[in-house]
Amino acid sequence: MTLKKLGSPLLGLLLAGCMVLMLMYPSGTLAAALRGLSIWWDVLFPSLFPFFVISEMLLGFGVVHLFGALLDPLMRPLFNIPGSGGFVAAMGYVSGYPVGAKLTAKLREQQLVSRAEGERLVAFTTSSDPIFLLGAVSVGFFHDASLGLVLALAHYGSGLIVGLLMSFHGRGDKYPEPPTAVHDRAEPQQQRGRLRLALSSMAEARRRDGRSFGELLKSAIQSSLQLIIVVGGLVVFFNVLMELLTRAGIMSVLFSVLGGVLSLAGFPAQLSAALASGFFEVTIGARSAGEAAASIPLQFKAATAAFILSWGGLSVHAQVASILNGTGLRYLPFLAARLVHGLLSAILLLVIWKPVTGSGLSAGFSALPVTAGLTASSGPAFGASLLLLVLLLGAALLLTLLVWLLRQLAQRLRQS
Question: Which residue would you say has higher pLDDT here, 412 or 34?
Fold first, then answer.
């Protein structure tokens, strides 16, 4: 009997076992479900829903196409993805998982990226948002705002490394021709200019969409509500699943196995509980890392949190898999990228720990106004996130301009 044929009966048995455990521990199941619902309502809904709606509106107005044409000279050589991937990366890094996957799926539906490009894009744009990393993890779980800088450098820096590594994924695939290529053939780039081409792409995208502002807003809210409800359901499910596994004694077995693996890797075995919890759900795992025994060196607890943030937890994996369903984008490259991202993030944090914490940069970083806004709640944090989005897109545009100027200079040197 093949593995595929065995999969359905085994899954049925596992679900039946979960039902039995729910009947045996109804109060624990209810408490876990309420915890998951609280995480969704208090953290995920206010932080993700506005970005879901905004990203949908920006797609309808052609803003993504505008940045796609502008950022193409930067994103193609670096990450082997179209310029619209730069906008997706900025939105993904600012608003967190699973916004990058949602935007990638939209680009795939509009045939703006090939399967390989979409898999590259979703692999390195799925990350924690700064509000959660700086506010919840650094301040809330570790009670140390200065830890935010080293965590951010390790998490986002390793994410960019994953993007560079993923540029080699699927290089043999043929890409669909981006809409800007038609304009480039009709009128040479030297005559039209990159900015004029970008504005033309934006206008064409808006014309093809054709919906009024009211229709676009209604559609964006409807689709965003559907997605945020799916996200909430998965968070509740995995919180309940972890509670049932704990009651059944399976988590304790997992703790002991991971403790042995951590000891072999030179990490304290006491961090196995945080790592096992983070395997399923990122919030619980990061909290467990911050609340680990005070005798454990802080850099090891921070490295564990960095791994958990980059891995994302099976809850985030299920969210991304549900978004990618029907787009033709495969889950396996995303799984491999998450594992590589987690390992790189933990290693990078240990490498930069002494240089960053010993130089006093962390204390200065935690005092910046933008950082203070990101560690706040509601309005200030949301405003700081929007400011960070503008800064990221501005930096990307400046880098693109620099690349273009260097190319022009190289061409003139070759001609002379």
Answer: 34
